[in-house]
Amino acid sequence: MIDKLIENIKKTNAPIVVGLDPMMKFVPEHIRQAAFREYGETLEGAAEAIWQYNKGIVDAVYDLIPAVKPQIAMYEQFGIPGMIAFKKTVDYCKEKGLVVIGDVKRGDIGSTSEAYAVAHLGKVQVGSKAYGAFDEDFATVNPYLGSDGVKPFLKVCKEEKKGIFVLVKTSNPSSGELQDRLVDGKPIYELVGEQVAAWGEECMGSGSYSYVGAVVGATYPEQGRIMRKVMPKAFILVPGYGAQGGKGADLVHFFNEDGLGAIVNSSRGIIAAYQQEQYAHFGEQGYADAARAAVVAMREDIAEALNNR
Amino acid sequence: MIDKLIENIKKTNAPIVVGLDPMMKFVPEHIRQAAFREYGETLEGAAEAIWQYNKGIVDAVYDLIPAVKPQIAMYEQFGIPGMIAFKKTVDYCKEKGLVVIGDVKRGDIGSTSEAYAVAHLGKVQVGSKAYGAFDEDFATVNPYLGSDGVKPFLKVCKEEKKGIFVLVKTSNPSSGELQDRLVDGKPIYELVGEQVAAWGEECMGSGSYSYVGAVVGATYPEQGRIMRKVMPKAFILVPGYGAQGGKGADLVHFFNEDGLGAIVNSSRGIIAAYQQEQYAHFGEQGYADAARAAVVAMREDIAEALNNR
């Protein structure tokens, strides 16, 4: 799947992933009202609203981008109907040829981590049959429990040709509370990054990248520069661009000389672009066109930064 | 909810939580076959099998125990039908008066962490209505992302009178890879424990315990002893008893002098007791009675250890 991700990036010339994190306050009134008319103000109504909203965005941007990253929490909060909307979104994006990164941040131990890996990347055995449950292409994984938590994911990735992104240095202000603490003079995120590089050695795609990637926030460009060297073969998933403050110029350190090795996420900066002054002229009805315009602007911002480095 | 947990522990005289982690290989043949006859070898069939299996166990043990801990990964791997079985299990256990600890190990940042908190402990707003999605009583939370990831849970806990258990020192062999690393001479799990104690200061139940608890594995009794002192007001959820190797005598350090402060989890040791030599005479058909016998034995093991300290 790392090969498909790279192929999609080359095809679109855009190392961009659109975060499908549909908060209700982003969903235009006309979509919300239509869903509530059909299902009432229920969890089903909310799930229908976010699904229709997502579908509009995907239809408007799929030809410009290599990948999407639905954030499962935004669906999980709407219970079973929300999880159905998540699954519909995953399936629809895959039909459109997009690589789907499930932002699930799962992580547990042993057989439990294996169950999460199976849930999101693998197939579960039921009697003589096997089924994919949510069946994303990549999943994000939390490393706090150590390699017991990560190795079951690697096993499933090998079998299914899928991939993971391990949380290394997250984009939030308090990420340093734990991740920046020094162990023998080295920050914890760097230790985790070294593990990512080691896990990746045995998990190589057909080119020069492994399918064990890392999450490093755009809000920490200096750390991105260091981690780029620590994990030369890992793809870096970079959240925090746009709404969280990361800029195109901050991103160059996350890429390798080949122009690859990073994929930059923007969520509300794209999907709720119509709520920003810059794109307000699209209006609520034009939210999907606004998202498309925001993708084009983001692509240019990153291309310019990479050209100027 | 911490008050109810303590009340339930006093009532049952058993600081025990039964881990409802239904792997298919634990489910007796007759339950599996009945489910497959009705739904085929499908995700629905698997979900029906684990739900019926759970129900049998809960019916057999609910009067002996204060709480259950369903491990969501074991349901998530069966997709939407699995999530429905999870929700049915949560609801059924609550009807039986049990405290439900959702072992979800979620953790993200800002609005995403809030969405997880809402999904598992709170209510989500849909237009003018509000709904609980999965609606457990407690949830387990991963601290790798720092306080940005935990505070949204605290907010929801305050509003809804619920609680969390933060991963501090997990029970698995490789938990030390990250958690034991020394920062200024102190292991990381202790730093996280100090945060748990600080978060708990503002989140007190009506007695002497906070509703911000911690997870510390039974497999690390020495660390349990230290963490008991670092977090005197935190309830400690102790996994790793039984199948993972923790014994009654290892557990005394996790309790305070009042005999409270810890709740010990056993999963397969209870729910798959019939597969152990000691309880094999119950047979597959008697799996629920075997679980009851295993709960009684565990209760005695812990009581004896506490009496002998």
What features would you describe in this structure?
- The structure is a homodimer of 309-residue chains.
- With 309 residues, chain A is an alpha/beta fold.
- In chain A, the strands form 3 sheets. An 8-stranded parallel β-barrel of chain A has the order 1-2-3-6-7-10-11-12, surrounded by 7 helices. Chain A has a two-stranded antiparallel ribbon with strand order 4-5. A two-stranded antiparallel ribbon of chain A has the order 8-9.
- In chain A, a hairpin with a 2-residue loop joins strand 4 and strand 5.
- In chain A, helix 2 packs across helix 3, helix 3 runs parallel beside helix 5 and helix 6 packs parallel to helix 7.
- The longest helix of chain A is centred in the C-terminal third of the chain and has 21 residues.
- Chain A is globular, with a radius of gyration of 19 Å.
- At the A-B interface, helix 3, helix 4, helix 5, helix 6 and strand 4 of A face helix 3, helix 4, helix 5, helix 6 and strand 4 of B.
Compose a concise summary of this entry.
The structure is a homodimer of 309-residue chains. Chain A has 309 residues and is of the alpha/beta class.
Question: What is the residue-mean pLDDT of chain A, rounded to a whole number?
Answer: 96
Count of helix runs of chain A: 13
From the N-terminal CA to the C-terminal CA of chain A, the straight-line distance is 29 Å
Helix content class of chain A:
40-55%
Question: What is the chains' assembly state?
Answer: homodimer
- Rounded Rg of chain A: 19 Å
Largest sheet of chain A: 8 strands, parallel, barrel
Strand order of the main beta sheet of chain A, please?
1-2-3-6-7-10-11-12
Structural class of chain A: alpha/beta
| Coarse shape of chain A | globular
SSE ordering of chain A: HEHHEHHEHEEEHEHEEHEHEHEHH
Total strands of chain A: the figure is 12
Strand content of chain A: 15-25%
